[in-house]
Amino acid sequence: MARLILFNKPYGVLTQFTDRHGRPTLKDFIDIPHVYPAGRLDLDSEGLLLLTDSGRLAADITRPGRGWPKVYWAQVEGVPDAQALTTLARGVILDGVRTRPAEVEPVAEPPLWPRTPPIRVRLTLKTSWIAITLREGRNRQVRRMTAAVGHPTLRLVRYRVGAHTIDALPSGEWRETEA
Predict the structure, then answer these.
(1) Given 15, 43, 107, 177, which residue has the most CB atoms within 10 angstroms?
(2) Cβ-based burial of 74 (10 A; exposed 0-12, middle 13-18, buried ≥19)
């Protein structure tokens, strides 16, 4: 049976096990041989990262369009209006190609751990949170999508992948579960 590890990746941790520049990596948190990330999560993003020892399971999780849906909580500059939310949901053009349709909705600020370092707060700029569900995983996709509609992402947390969430999983902690 395939192993499946849920890891709540902190800000500033690489989604790999080695780094020649000495930055924090998965090895600093997870000491399990022969498991590898099923997908990636940017250095400056936080939240749920799945690791497995099964190439087949990793492919099922990450397959564009048919992989497991991923829900992100994004703190953005400003408050997106209905048009911006509709544009995000229908897809935006990134590198000449429209993103797949997404589910997008405004949400209340989620109950999260403090980020270290904290995001830069500007007293004159209001921020808000949106939840966005993707079925593809382009490079820095959520950040690029929100910027394309005029609401750059300040903090990005992946909350859910498939049926698995970061609920009851503190930042920097992991647990094994059934696939």
Answers:
(1) 15
(2) buried
Tell which phi-psi region holds residue 26, choosing left (phi > 0), alpha (psi between -120 and 50) or beta: alpha
Render pLDDT for 67-93 as a digit per residue (tens, 0 to 9).
899 999 999 999 999 999 999 999 999
- Model pLDDT for residues 93-107, shown as the tens digit of each residue: 999 999 999 999 999
CATH number at residue 141: 3.30.2350.10
How far is residue 119's CA from residue 147's CA, in Å, rounded to a whole number?
17
Between the two ends of the chain, the Cα-to-Cα distance in Å is 9
Query: Is 42 a known active-site residue?
Result: yes
Nearest to 145 by CA among 109, 106, 104, 107: 104
Pairing type for strands 4-9 and 174-177 reads antiparallel
The closest of 36, 5, 39, 44 to 135, measured between CA atoms, is 39
Domain count across the chain: 1
Give the residue ranges of the chain where pLDDT is below 50. none
- Which tokens sit at 88? 């995000």
Q: What does the alpha-carbon distance between residue 48 and residue 31 come to, in Å, rounded to a whole number?
A: 17
**Residues 65, 136 contacting (CB under 8 angstroms):** yes
